Amino acid sequence: MAFRCDICGNAHDGLPDVAYRWPDHYFSIPESERNKRVHGTTDICSIDDEDFFVRGVILIPIKDSKDSFGLGVWVSQKRENFKTYLANFDSAEIGPFFGWLCNRIPFYDEDTLALKTMAHFQGNNQRPLIKLEPSEHPLYRDYAEGVTLDRAWAIVHSRNQIGDT
């Protein structure tokens, strides 16, 4: 989908996904302590062996299109679900598991941290699909109803506000 962006003025060939490298909880750990307290990859994270997170994708539909774009986000998991995922990371036969959204998405004025989600595991070397539970939050509305291409680009460009995408 080729498009000239009203925000940056550049021509783009396709809409990129936005991804967060860490759950926001990671940044509450002093930098000097992260090597000892945080264990993680691009797909999983544990902090102090007490807080557990998996990275997945929220798919936002684009109105008047078959396309969508992804928000690569982190959701919390309880210990036993996290361990189940580790033991079956490439299986679609587990879950879905409840989790809290663990990233603030700066595009939204209303905080996105701690929205209710369900992680649906896909197997086949794919990240889990993160489905938002119904709420009045604007992110849920975008997820459920879709967004215009202009709004999608505004969300993509807002990622620069946090510097860790």
Can you characterise this structure?
- It is a single chain.
- This protein is an alpha+beta fold and 165 residues long.
- It has one domain (16-161).
- It has four helices and ten strands.
- The strands form three sheets. It has a five-stranded mixed beta sheet. Strands 8-9-10 form a three-stranded antiparallel beta sheet, with no helix packed on it. The protein has a two-stranded antiparallel sheet with strand order 1-2.
- The model is unreliable at 160-165 (pLDDT under 50).
How are the SSEs ordered, and which strands pair?
Layout: E1 2-4, E2 11-13, E3 18-19, H1 34-37, E4 38-40, E5 44-47, E6 51-61, E7 68-77, H2 79-87, E8 97-100, E9 116-120, E10 129-132, H3 138-145, H4 149-158
Parallel strand pairs: 3-7
Antiparallel strand pairs: 1-2, 4-5, 5-6, 6-7, 8-9, 9-10
